[in-house]
Amino acid sequence: MTDTQKDHRPAHVSPEEWHARVQLAASYQLMAHAGINDLTYNHLSARVPGEPEHYIIKGERQLFEQVTASNLLKYDLAGNKVSDSSDSVSRGGQVIHAGIFEARPDIHAVFHTHTTANLAVSMQKIGLLPLNQHALRVYSRTGYHLFNGFEFDLESRKALAASLAGKYFLVMQNHGALICGRTIPEAYVEHHNFEFACRAQVAALSAGGVEQLIIPPKEVVKHATAQVERFLTKITEDSRDWGALIALARKVAPEFEQ
């Protein structure tokens, strides 16, 4: 079953935007199902297809599990709300998400979360280590962003964009993680990989210090990184995971398509 077979699209929303809304709402619901949420905080966002100056994002008074395709908000990169809704996005949402879309035209989805695992890695001086296959999928494309207080100041967009330069993932030190994608499915799957890498690292370190870990030699990390770049970095809705994820979303939260 395709997205268009359950089409609740309002007349004023283009088919392309509605498709993105369905994918983004599914991502919110799937993360909630996986236990990834922080009350009404954290946001997943996507650039509107064909409208590079607009993006969609949840309202600040919503839990992940309450997001549907139709209640996502639409904003421009300057912070002006385009949607006809009484809800709004948080200041942090405008700074982080709009800031990345403004600085990086290659990025079409931005997922920002605080999980126990990515918070823990964000507080470790060693950063994310290339300890396992999940970590190696994101390791070479991960940057680091120093904590300078809450992301409320629009001027902090510049520092955030500088930290992300040439990368798709950020360990936001003492804060959480930022996962970017060229597609919504890519951002979702890579967030999964990043999250599993962080969970595994925290679990491994709980049994002892870094000296107890088996870290692959540099030449193996280099070889695995080349494999990732060749075979694993392009993730679309036709890739192996997304169809199964949409089927799961329709099972556990069918309202996401409304």
Q: What is the count of DSSP helices, taking H or I runs of 4+ residues?
A: 8
Largest sheet: 7 strands, mixed
Oligomer: single chain
Globally, the shape reads globular
Helix-residue proportion: 25-40%
Radius of gyration: 18 Å
Structural class: alpha+beta
From the N-terminal CA to the C-terminal CA, the straight-line distance is 15 Å
Sequence of secondary-structure elements: HEEEHEHHEHEEHHH
Arithmetic mean of pLDDT: 93
User: Beta-strand percentage?
Assistant: 5-15%
Walk me through this protein's architecture:
- Mean pLDDT is 93; it is low at 1-5.
- This protein has helices spanning 15-33, 91-103, 116-122, 133-138, 156-164, 184-205, 218-231, 242-252; strands at residues 43-48, 51-57, 73-76, 109-113, 142-145, 169-172, 176-181.
- Strands 3-2-1-4-7-6-5 form a seven-stranded mixed β-sheet, with helices on both faces.
- Strand 6 (169-172) and strand 7 (176-181) form a beta hairpin.
- The protein is globular, with a radius of gyration of 18 Å.
- It is an alpha+beta fold.
